[in-house]
Amino acid sequence: MTNGKPAVRVKKLDRATLLTIIVIALVYVLAFVLEQVMPSTSMLFTVLKKGATYALVAVSMNLLNGFTGLFSLGQAGFMLIGAYTYAIFTIPVAQRLSVYQYYDGGLIQFSLPVLVAVALAGVFAALFAFLIGLPVLRLKSDYLAIATLGFAEIIRAIFQWDKIGLLTNGSNLLRLFPTFNDFNIRNAQGEVVLHLSTLVPFLITGVCVAFIVLLINSSFGRAFKAIRDDETAAEAMGINLARHKMLAFCTSSFFAGVGGAMLAMYANSVQAKSFTTAMTYEILLMVVIGGIGSITGSVMSSFLFVACSEWWLRFLDQEQVWNGWKVPLLRNGFRLVVFSVIIMAVVLFFRKGIMGTQELPDLFRKRRKLNGKEGGRS
Amino acid sequence: MSENVLHLENVTMQFGGVVAVNDVSMDVNEGEIVALIGPNGAGKTTVFNVITGVYAPTNGRVSLRGRVIAEDHPRGKMRKMYAAGHLGEYPRSVNNTPDRITRLNMARTFQNIRLFKSMTVFDNVLVAKHMHLKANFFSTALHLNAREERRMREETMELLRIVGLENECDEIATSLPYGQQRRLEIARALSTNPSMLLLDEPAAGMNPQETEDLSAFIREIKDRFGLTVLLIEHDMNLVMDISDRIYVLNFGALIAEGTPAEIQSNPDVITAYLGVAEE
Ligand SMILES: Nc1ncnc2c1ncn2[C@@H]1O[C@H](COP(=O)(O)OP(=O)(O)OP(=O)(O)O)[C@@H](O)[C@H]1O
Ligand SMILES: [Mg+2]
Questions:
Q1: Lowest-pLDDT choice from A69-83, A359-373, B68-82
Q2: What is the pLDDT of residue B275?
Q3: Between the CA of residue A118 and those of A58, A255, A326, A360, what are the distances in Å?
Q4: Residues 119-148 of A with CB under 8 A from B
Q5: Which of A301, B115, B133, B195 could form an S-S bond across to B105 if both were Cys, CB 3.0 to 4.6 Å?
Q6: Are both B6 and B100 inside the same structural domain?
Q7: How many domains does chain B contain in total?
Q8: Residue B74's CATH number
Q9: Could you tell me the residue ranges of all domains in chain A?
Q10: What distance in Å separates the CA atoms of residue B195 and residue B46, rounded to the nearest whole number?
Q11: Do B189 and B204 have their domain in common?
Q12: Per residue in B168-226, pLDDT tens?
């Protein structure tokens, strides 16, 4: 239904986009208010913090798998690098001796501001991606999955190696670095006067996801999608495949690294052995459930996924007795069974995930069309 | 005599034991429309793929406006299997990836349409402007190059208007009828600002009316954009109508070259074409 030259305009803020921005702003306000009024021990905040962390990682994976058509399975590896970078550079100097107790306080004897370390976490992850990408991105894309999977396994082993313990603390925990809770503002008595431990991860994820959304809607984003749709044609249109794949891979890994730093802040400690391949598969599941090629979908499914696995299905793990009747099956571990069944059902029956390739503004557009009141264009 | 644009010198392309292109030399001059014809499997598309850097030639040289864009000679196992001539005449090894060839102002279309299938008509043409992007990665991602983006969009819309697809600009590319998809592929190639255009069977799948329109369309864009055109085509009406010169390929080798009138009366060509079923 176009008349004339609508698409030529650089997209202005249309109503759907404006609505989207308002909805997102409301979510942030809600998160902020809830944190002030609800007890901070509520499961809700655990879910929101972890959800925000995974949302960023899932979106970064979607940028590569969904928008550029490159299949990478290195997410856990890049998160590990991000988490370690963050932890290593932010442990307060005074605490280093107790953290690196077997390594005489470790090699590094300074600490960086939190946000600088978060950015550095991304930079190091991107650097590793660059080094892997140099040989691998020239090959057919299947090799990338294998190479990144191998990289994640190897990096996990290397970081536990005690020869580099001066840096990584070997197989011991890294801890005592600033966490999400340290963003809370306290008064002189040490009481929290302003809760920010949920808002800050929301803000970090928000800024990063906003960048990715802008990137996808820019000329580079279009080039990525062209490569996904048809490499041969993209190359024939003057798009340098190696360079653009590298850009997508490094950008994706950068944000996986930032996500790793956030995971460290969420978990209060870092240990290489927790960054397993299973973690990558969980993230992949979030992307698939949300819809490959939908940022909105990845974000929503990350929160849903975390809420289900950490909170809503918890009761399945506890034996319960109703009116003297012991409910069958409810026992430790049953939660995971139910969870797996739900995931299988989603993957089987909603092939395109929750959102398909749609984004939040598209939902508003569709609603307006159904109302038959569409005045402008979509 | 006008200036030479594309020059092929003893180009041979051998896949294992199959000599798909056998010692082909040809020239395309400024402003010409040249056709490359031949029966199915004659090696026409392979010639395009060598010119555009998809394959490195087994032996021979390709130059664009005097600049060597591909040159190679058989090596390793291929040295023993090599079945064509002119060995040792092309000692250098020059390779360019397809994107670099396109940046040297030579664009192509594909025999089996290869549009970006999830993208709109508009974005298909717009993305071909990406290679001219001046802004760097960060300012592009942060949308700080609004003026450049606007200009790219305006040029895209202009191009869609010229090819008559402005009303379809928001449709998904692959939802268009076949004839329009072919037009869109040409528009997308034009979007890279080529001076040399390679068309691989642009009329394939078109009805007679569409084919007739296409012939006028190719002439129009040639004049408007100052193009030199090399096209592969099976539709003889189209070929005879618009070509200045014709090269005929059979079993990988050139068997004739000349004006449409010369080609139509060439006995070798008639045999080659009557040897296989006439289309
Ligand atoms: N990548 C390849 N590997 C092996 N053989 C190939 C390859 N590409 C082309 N060939 C062979 O080269 C020969 C010429 O193929 P080509 O596609 O160039 O023919 P064509 O003249 O374009 O035919 P058509 O009119 O059917 O499009 C065929 O025998 C084909 O099988
Ligand atoms: Mg062909």
A1: A359-373
A2: 62
A3: 18, 10, 49, 28
A4: none
A5: B195
A6: yes
A7: 2
A8: 3.40.50.300
A9: 15-35+43-276
A10: 21
A11: no
A12: 999 999 999 998 999 999 999 999 999 999 999 999 988 899 999 999 999 999 999 99
Pocket of ligand 1 (CB under 6 A): B 15, 18, 20, 38, 40-46, 111
Per-residue confidence band for A377, with pLDDT thresholds at 50, 70 and 90:
very low
Contact B115, B124 (CB under 8 A): yes
Residue keyed to tokens 């580099």: A164
Cα distance between residue B131 and residue B194, in whole Å: 12
B232: which 2 tokens?
């592969």
Q: What residue spans of chain A are helical by DSSP H?
A: 15-37, 43-65, 75-90, 96-99, 114-136, 142-159, 165-168, 199-216, 219-229, 231-236, 241-267, 277-290, 295-307, 334-349, 360-370
A148's tokens: 């990144």
A31-41: pLDDT as tens digits: 899 888 888 78
Phi, psi for residue B198 in degrees, rounded to 5? -110, 120
Residue A102 touches chain B, beta carbons under 8 Å = no
Mutate which of B14, B15, B40, B278 for ligand 1? The one with the most ligand atoms within 8 Å of its CB, which is B15
Instruction: Mark whether B201 and B97 lie in a shared domain.
Output: yes
Q: How far is CA A64 from CA A83, A86, A233, A292, in A?
A: 21, 23, 19, 10
Q: Which of B144, B160, B193 finishes a domain?
A: B193
d(CA A347, CA A327): 29
- Statement to judge: residues B90 and B198 lie in one domain: yes
- pLDDT number for residue A4: 42
Give the residue on B whose Cα is nearest the Cα of A66: B118
Q: Is B110 exposed, middle or buried (0-12, 13-18, 19+ CB in 10 A)?
A: buried
Return the top range by mean pLDDT from A314-318, A355-359, B6-10. Answer: B6-10
SS3 B61: strand
At A76, which amino acid appears?
Answer: A
Mean pLDDT score, B258-276: 83
Q: Distance (Å, rounded) from C-alpha B238 to C-alpha B229? A: 14
CA distance A33 to A40: 12
Judged by CB atoms closer than 8 Å, whether chains meet at A214 and B141 is answered as: yes
> Hey, is the C-beta of A5 within 8 angstroms of any chain B C-beta?
yes
How many whole angstroms separate alpha carbon A51 and alpha carbon A114? Answer: 20
Residue A165 is predicted with a pLDDT of 82
Closest CA to B252 of B13, B92, B82, B50: B13
Query: Is pLDDT of A214 > 70?
Result: yes
Indicate the Cα dihedral angle A86, A87, A93, A94, nearest 10°: 140
Full domain range(s) for residue B131: 114-193
* B87/B171 same-domain check: no
* Separation CA A164–CA A376 (nearest Å): 61
| Distance (Å, whole) CA B19 – CA B13 | 6
Specify whether B126 is located in the same domain as B174: yes
Look at residues B193, B208, B228 and tell me which one is the last residue of a structural domain.
B193
State how far the Cα of A139 lies from the Cα of A70, in Å rounded to an integer: 11
Give yes or no for residue A329 having a pLDDT over 60. yes
The pair of three-digit structure tokens given for residue A138, joined into one six-digit string: 């020239």
Same domain, B70 and B22: yes
Residue reference for tokens 């000692």: B91
Distance (Å) from CA B224 to ligand 2 centroid: 27
